[in-house]
UniProtKB/TrEMBL annotation, chains A, B:
Protein name: GntR family transcriptional regulator, transcriptional regulator of bglA
Organism listed in the record: Gilliamella intestini
Keyword Oxidoreductase (UniProt): no
Taxonomic lineage of the native organism: Bacteria, Pseudomonadati, Pseudomonadota, Gammaproteobacteria, Orbales
Swiss-Prot/TrEMBL GO biological process terms: negative regulation of DNA-templated transcription
InterPro entries named in the record: Bact_HTH_transcr_reg, Chorismate_lyase_/UTRA_dom_sf, Tscrpt_reg_HTH_GntR, UTRA, WH-like_DNA-bd_sf, WH_DNA-bd_sf
Pfam families assigned to the protein according to its UniProt record, in alphabetical order: GntR, UTRA
Keywords: DNA-binding, Transcription, Transcription regulation
């Protein structure tokens, strides 16, 4: 973790632990430099990071203020796979349906920019938050980049595992989504009827070096999954 | 427009006009300084801006590369109201259903942080892209901040008008969304049946000074509206 990320985490923790209400003014930059004993550029980076995360906003010539916190029960739609939740929310759990090593079909090949011969892990999981079924996730990972996965690993956060074991970090992603009517098979997984609505999200994740490593489709349960984006225009 | 935004626009224009394929390496920072005759910090800001927009990615120690462009026909979900489209896409048009000055109900008051006595403009529009109906939008603007709106103004971009006439810029927004089944009235507006699916997006927009000025709800047509987010982890 970089120093500015550490400081950003500390400031965020302070805001949430003290439950500072929206509009609360934080110390100015000099105050924060003094408080955290880091350089000006580290503080500036940390503040920009928190601004992008929707935790604070900076008003030029006026100060640094706390934003309204995301309402509970809404998934942060910009976090990886939509299942990363905030500090005091409970974490999601997974029921793993399968972990298979397969040859990719043409859609997977296109999205992962791989060839016919390349092996990919195919993982199917039901995702739960607070005991509620949020969605069915089907993911493809390139074996070339992530050499080993098994049921035990994918019961937990795959991204944490990948980061820790293969030093692969998410650089960016392309997320495409639309509302659909469920087919009979998917409906059954979600405990719904065919024809009922769902949000279908397809996402390709790239490493910081720009290489696609994960192509995932999540079908979200329309009653259980609700979403939030705390956007910033900068 | 700030200098870095101008330079970012120029680089983006170049990438799109020349249709540079994904993975194309751009000139390095020194090359770009030379090309655009601006300072290093302006180039760095412009590149970070393009990175956040999903146009490029920067690989440390390696270079600056073009990302895959958003597929056509998908709305950029992070842009204002979801109807801002890219350079060579066609722009959305609106059919205005009403523009009324009203007293806010309690939901609107909560979202806009205003009191009972404050007047708000209530605007209802059907939004079209490429001649297709994408959604029904219902927006509330605080008269205190945006003193005058009429039918002619809201047929076009309200945000451009507000920016030009009141010098109000979007600082940030809170976007909450979920999949719903349509009620009979909304279904009729969208040319669909009651009970059919839709994406319902509620968003509060704040000025750069942190004041809420617009609360909007958009119900998107599930067959016509599809979305994209080109996310970046930084």
């Amino acid at each position: 973790m970089l120093k500015y990320q550490y400081v950003a985490g500390k400031i965020k923790q302070l805001i949430y632990q003290q439950q500072l209400p929206k509009g609360t003014q934080l110390a100015n930059i000099d105050g924060l430099i003094n408080q955290y004993q880091v350089s000006r550029s580290t503080i500036v980076k940390a503040l920009n990071c928190l601004e992008r995360q929707g935790v604070i906003y900076q008003v030029q010539g006026s100060g640094i203020f706390v934003r309204e916190r995301k309402k509970r029960g809404y998934l942060n739609f910009l976090q990886s796979h939509g299942f990363t939740v905030d500090l005091d929310d409970t974490y999601g759990v997974s029921k793993v349906l399968n972990v298979d090593l397969i040859k990719p079909n043409s859609k997977v090949k296109d999205n992962l920019q791989c060839d016919d011969e390349e092996d990919v892990y195919f993982i199917k999981r039901l995702r739960y938050v607070d005991g509620k079924l949020y969605g069915l996730e089907q993911s493809y990972y390139r074996k070339k980049l992530i050499n080993y996965l098994n049921k035990e690993i994918v019961e937990n956060s795959i991204f944490s595992y990948i980061q820790d074991n293969y030093n692969i970090n998410i650089g960016f992603s392309d997320k495409y989504f639309q509302v659909i009517k469920l087919d009979a098979e998917t409906a059954q997984y979600l405990g719904l009827q065919a024809g009922e609505p769902a949000l279908c999200v397809e996402e390709v994740f790239y490493t910081t070096a720009g290489e696609p490593f994960d192509f995932s489709t999540i079908i979200y349960h329309y009653e259980n999954a609700r979403f939030c984006i705390q956007n910033h225009s900068k």
